[in-house]
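Onboarding guide, step 5: your first structure request.
Type a short instruction followed by the sequence, for example:

Predict the 3D structure of this protein.
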Amino acid sequence: MSGGFLRFESISKSFPGVKALDTVSFGVESGSVHALVGENGAGKSTLLKILSGAYRQDSGSIVVAGEHVSFASPIDAIRSGVSVIYQELHLVPEMSIAENIYLGHLPNRFGFLESTVMLDLAATQLAEVGVQVDPREKVGRLPLALRQMVEIAKALTHDARIFAFDEPTSSLSAREVSRLFEIIERLKESGKAVLYVSHRMDEVFSLCNAITVLRDGKHVFTENDLSQTSRSEVVNLMVGREIEDIYGYKSRLIGEPVLEVKDVVAEGIRKPASLTVRAGEIVGIFGLVGAGRTELLKAIFGANRFASGSIWIDGVKRRIESTRDAIKAGIALCPEDRKDEGIFAIRSVKENNNLSARRRNAHMGVFIKERWEHWNALKQVERLRVRTPTIQQHVGNLSGGNQQKVVLGRWLSENPRVILLDEPTRGIDIGAKKEIYDLIYELAESGVGVVVVSSELPEVLGVCDRILVMREGEIVREIDRTEANQGLLLELALPTGDKSGAAA
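The system replies with structure tokens like these:
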């Protein structure tokens, strides 16, 4: 049995049709950062939910500081000194930042909320994570990256002995990632045990001391000295096969413009934005958080009304005043925040897959064609290698990567002319990333115009034909892939006057 301040001993957990964890055992030392890696569906998030008290294991036990513990609820886990920061955020949109940070332990006097004290404490906690924002602001109005930092600030308010991070950098900019790493280093130096889940091997090998690999719900490898293994060995253990060039860029014939955006101004877009995407072309958009990337995609898709400008599809000006207009024009969007904007978590894979195409395939536009929907869902699940026991499984029970594939399958059922991908591989393992890149090339080769927004520089450099850089609500430059490099893109993306620490 492995040692450690925190130990998992023969943990097993099953769901209908799926054995998520199968006798998993390993330990995490205090004063160290222990990486937990594996493909989507390997069981990482399930293990964290057991640690947090959100799930109960079917068998096995958790040991903290030599004592067997059992958590009936997340409150039990928090009281025992466990703090878990999930990739899928657990915040209340209609409450303020301060209320979210201290939810469950609001500062009070004789049972009455001390609002001023709460705001002061929240401001201090936000400063601790490097965020300058009014703690009275409602969380629902914040971009995804700032919500992630609020989640981290919330976790740090607990006097925890164990911290677990689930893909914490998936929506953060380089500067926010640097700040988070400083916080984690301080936790390590203060003797905390840190469990760190990430698909980003650069982060794992720069931050972590030890590593555990899960595959198909089973423990396959633990190394308590990360310097004794290599990235390629870890990746091969994760996927059970050798992966060489993850990006696998493929040149292809580029046709006529399928999407033309002319002088669009909308919320988050400070100066008129124009771009062209040709048939078979993959255009990347890179920028820091708040640069306007997501806002631009939402404007093109009709989710954000634009004040001026126009959208042209295949040389025809289209009136895009709603998402319905965009879909009819042949535009599809896979949003950055798939949990809130991409999926219906309590509905099945089949229903999520067919939501959009249903309008064209229903009898008389009203009666659902069950046979067609069943066939189409099976087709997309097979095509995209969605790991699900059945197409009737609730999407919310799938891993993040498989949820993303279901969203992609929905749009592939539409045969779009243009597909907008906002952080398409956020929180997705290396094997699934390669599958999505291959799909992007397949779409482009079929004549679809593809737009990829990504915070990962290697990703935009690896898959895109051209890259647009956005800064503070405007497109500042267009660069061909043959001229692009990480230093140039970062320099262009940084706000004017903030050129120091570009690689942070």
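Each response can be followed by summary notes, for example: The two ends are 39 Å apart (CA to CA).
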